[in-house]
Amino acid sequence: MESVGSIIVYTIITLAIVVCSVLAVTTRKILRAATYLLFALFATAALYFKLDYEFLGAVQIAVYAGGIVVLFVFSILLTSQPGDNSAKLASKKRALGFIGALSMLLVAGYSLVSRASFLTATASGDNPVMKEIGTALMGTGHGEYLLPFEAISVLLLACIIGGVVIARKR
Amino acid sequence: MELTMIYYLIPSLIMFCCGVYGFITRRNMIAILISLELMLNAVDINFVVFNRFLFPGEMEGMFFTLFAIGLAAAETALAIAIIINVFRVSNSIDVRDVNKMKH
Question: How many CA atoms lie within 13 A of A122 on its CB side?
Answer without folding.
Answer: 5
